[in-house]
Amino acid sequence: MAEQLAPFADLGFTDAIIRTMWPLPSGFDAAAAHRSVELAGEVRALLSE
Q: Is 20 in a helix, a strand, or coil?
C-alpha cells in the first residue's frame, strides 16, 4: 500500500484517513482490527521517510 500512496506524498499530501468498520465483518476479530491499525502505522512510517 505504501508504494501506491507514495506518488501522493511526492505531491505534498501528508495525511491519509483510514476508516475502521464496526461491527467487524464476519470472519474478522479484534486482533485483525488491531493488526490493521498497526499496518496503517507502518504505511505512515514508510511515507514519512
A: coil
What's the whole-model pTM score?
Answer: 0.58
Cell of 32: 485483525
Cα 17 off chain centre by: 8
- With contact defined as beta carbons under 8 Å apart, do 13 and 47 qualify? no
Residue with cell 507502518: 42
H helical segments located in 1-49: 2-10, 30-48
* Nearest residue to 31 via CA among 43, 41, 39: 39
Distance CA 46, CA 6 (A): 9
Task: Say yes or no to pLDDT of 38 above 80.
Answer: yes
Angle at the Cα of 49 from the Cα atoms of 18 and 45, rounded to 5 degrees: 35
